[in-house]
Amino acid sequence: MSDTQAIELDAVIVGSGMAGLYMTKRLNDRGMKIQTIEAGSGVGGAWYWNRYPGCRADLPIIEYSFSFSKELEQEWDWSEVMAGQPEIEKYLNHTADRFNLRKDIKLNTKVTDAIYDEAANIWTVTTDQGDVYKAKYCIMATGCLNEPNYPGFKNADTFKGDIYHTAQWPREGVDLTGKRVAIIGCGSSGVQAIPQIAKQAKELIAFQRSPVYTFPAKNAPMNPDFLAQAKVDYADIREQQRNNEMGICNYRGPKKPKDPNAAPKAKPSKKIMDITPEQRKQEIADFGVNVLTLYVDTYYNAEANEIACTLYREYLQEFIGNDQKADALSPKNYPLHCKRPVIDTEYYSAFKQDNVSIVDLRDNAVEEVTATGLKTQNGEYEFDVLVYATGFDAMTGTIKRLNIRGRDNVLLSDTWKDGPRMYMGLQSVGFPNFFTVTGPGSPSVVSNVLHSIEQHVEWIDNCIAHLVDNNVATIEPDLEAQDAWVEHVNKAAEGTMMTAPTCNSWYLGTNVEGKPRGFMPYLAGTKTYREECNDVVSKGYEGFTLKTA
Ligand code: NA7
């Protein structure tokens, strides 16, 4: 399409996951002329792409669901406490239909360029389908976990069998019955997929470089009485979520009247350092291994953390019973709480099956892919199917791969070459009227991300309304404010296990070769962050420059 045939819009939204859908609705409600562009053949974002066996939410779904519509809350019935991918995808499709969003969403289309023309104050957005859109605002709703990470193994293309990535699992599913399957990686995706693949495959070999600390999920079929009560309590649940720094209130259903004669309920200790070794073991016996995540000192005190790690390994050894498997599955040399928490269903039980084995890649790195399998330093393995559960180029991967050019033709990926630089995770200097939903420097993935998405979408929507109502041509952060914010984000993560020298994670970018190390999300919490965002607005968009037309 030539430039003269360009479609003129108020805003382009990139992505139709949870963020893109809600952003589409908000701007629609304002009567703006918009186009939402989606690479997939359906809506849902992360819940469209990640359809590997076992994929499910790792938060209670009552709290990991949209809060913006009372009608949606009332009409949707969840079937499990932590819903699976098919149900969440269905919910997001229902959301698209319910609010008539599909008319604004172009599927099967990838944005390739977004280029700012300063003289015209217009973003020109082009796609791989030849579309050209000219819009005042460009909003990236591309998600934090979108760009799959493939390890750069030598001879990766030589494997003759089938290759899959958990983040690009085929829509039609994969029948692994009777197959010899290898899976690389044991973050949330690997940990969720392994027990399901183990049920089908003739043989499953799990290749693990950093075995994880993982804790049993408390999933169960949704109790209809609980759901009915949640529907009554939704307003209160949302209020409590807003008052929590993670955007999670752990709703437990109706409060029961207190029985004055009941014995006081036992509670675990607050700090692991405050109790004796015997008491620590007793608390694990009484409350389960999840208790290790409750001791507050393990989050900032390295000694407390190491005690918890040792207890974890002892619990694992006892549970697995097999020394080789237990040792290979044991997380070592990095602290608990360094990586994103992993919540599992029957993960360790899968390794008790005879058809499941584990290859410890610590001191035994992958050397190359062969036509029939994988070669590590110490051995060679043959299989029919190779599954990469190797995660994502998180938080910046998608945006950095696009040709996004701001003022003076500056490429966004160049300005982020030493790590992302954003003010409040919303905007970057040099890119006027360009917004990112849950961008680096906002709580995003270290919170209930849907809660953070809603807060960001509402902030951006209100901001755009302010610009329109006040005849403001551009909004862009000040360099000083941006630098101070990046510093503030770094400070918030300092001294936590997430930035410990022995910690590597996708939060830090260290899972991708060549990516600069730096903690990308904002750790101060969603309540604090919301207040900071509101404060900026109440002070006339402090830290941003607004230029009138
Ligand atoms: P993660 O959590 O990044 O896990 C990826 C896994 O793949 C992790 O165990 C990695 O080990 C492993 N990996 C990556 N590259 C390699 C190489 N080259 N060799 C061996 N092993 C490798 O991604 P997920 O998809 O599981 O989860 C991402 C988020 O999605 C999750 O946190 C939830 O929020 C949902 P490493 O730890 O890098 O040593």
Indicate the CATH topology of the domain at 3-147 and 393-471.
FAD/NAD(P)-binding domain
Strand portion: 15-25%
Mean pLDDT rating: 96
Oligomerization status of the protein chains: single chain
User: Number of helical segments?
Assistant: 15
**Percent range of helical residues:** 25-40%
Q: What ligand molecules are bound, each kind once?
A: ligand NA7
CATH architecture verdict of the domain at 3-147 and 393-471? 3-Layer(bba) Sandwich
**Global structural class:** alpha/beta
Using brief descriptors, characterize the structure shown:
30% helix; binds ligand NA7; 549 residues; alpha/beta; single chain; eight-stranded mixed sheet; FAD/NAD(P)-binding domain; five-stranded parallel sheet
Describe the model.
The protein is of the alpha/beta class and 549 residues long. It has a domain at 3-147 and 393-471: FAD/NAD(P)-binding domain, CATH 3.50.50.60. The protein is 30% helix and 17% strand. It contains 15 helices and 20 strands. Strands 1, 2, 3, 4, 5, 6, 17 and 18 form an 8-stranded mixed beta sheet that branches. Helix 1 (18-29) packs parallel to helix 13, helix 8 packs antiparallel against helix 9 and helix 13 runs parallel beside helix 15 (526-538). The longest helix is centred in the C-terminal third of the chain and has 21 residues, at 449-469. The model has no long low-confidence stretch (mean pLDDT 96). The structure holds ligand NA7. Ligand NA7 binds at residues 145, 151, 166, 184-190, 209-210, 340, 361, 366, 389-392, 506, 511.
